[in-house]
Amino acid sequence: MSQKPATPLRLVVLISGNGSNLQAIIDEINNNDLPAQVVAVISNKAEAYGLERAKKANIQHHVLSNKDYSERSDYDAALKELIDSYQPDLIILAGFMRILSNEFVEHFSHKMMNIHPSLLPKHKGLNTHQRALDAGEKEHGCSVHFVTPELDDGPVILQAKTPVKDNDTAETLAARVHELEHRIYPQAIRLFAENKINQAE
Ligand code: GAR
């Protein structure tokens, strides 16, 4: 029988929406011994379905609405304090749709990952699937990367690819990329937990 390490990695997961990546991480912890524990889920949107997923999994969850803060720096300071109260080893951005201030990002340097629906450095920002189609890409996919102050930048940890088919739409492509995301995000967390990522990158 495989044994979990005495101290599983403490994860805080930030979401804004559906939370299917959050679910993939919870499932990997429960079903495949990912040596980690989601200690809190934080959403900037009260209606995010990912909050329901956290509730069902008995995970502490919070809404920290950006609408309650007029300054980005104040929101980020409150978010930083809430995250720090959980003493996480790793912060997971899983569809957290906010630009983060430099100070916030630097505070969590090399401890914060993001998943982005494109083969970075291609197609940073929004509407990545349509933009991949418009650009006539032969392949598309997703990337897990460490977060640095530049949007959707930072050292790539893992990528997964899918061929673009002639009859693909943004929706069909998004569905395949989502499946890939659910595979590589838990893998990237496992690499981090096992100290197999070169932190000097
Ligand atoms: C995912 O496709 C993720 O790659 C994307 O948001 C979606 C969240 O889905 N993130 C970004 O675009 C960040 N730039 P989920 O809520 O079902 O996990």
Secondary-structure arrangement, i.e. CATH architecture: 3-Layer(aba) Sandwich
Biggest beta sheet attributes: 7 strands, mixed
Number of helices: 6
Regions with little confidence, pLDDT below 50 for 5+ residues? none
- Helix % is 25-40%
Tertiary shape: globular
What does this structure look like?
The chain is α/β, with parallel strands linked by helices and 201 residues long. Helix content is 35%, strand content 21%. It has helices spanning 20-32, 50-56, 72-84, 102-107, 128-134, 170-193, and strands at 9-15, 36-43, 61-63, 90-93, 112-116, 139-146, 156-163. Strands 3-2-1-4-5-6-7 form a seven-stranded mixed β-sheet, covered by helices on one side. Helix 4 links the parallel strand 4 and strand 5 (112-116). The radius of gyration is 17 Å and the shape is globular. 36% of the residues are buried. The structure holds glycinamide ribonucleotide. Glycinamide ribonucleotide binds at residues 15, 17-21, 50, 94-95, 115-117, 142, 152, 178, 181.
Please give the structural blueprint.
Layout: E1 9-15, H1 20-32, E2 36-43, H2 50-56, E3 61-63, H3 72-84, E4 90-93, H4 102-107, E5 112-116, H5 128-134, E6 139-146, E7 156-163, H6 170-193
Parallel strand pairs: 1-2, 1-4, 2-3, 4-5
Antiparallel strand pairs: 5-6, 6-7
Helix pairs in contact: 1-6
The structure holds glycinamide ribonucleotide.
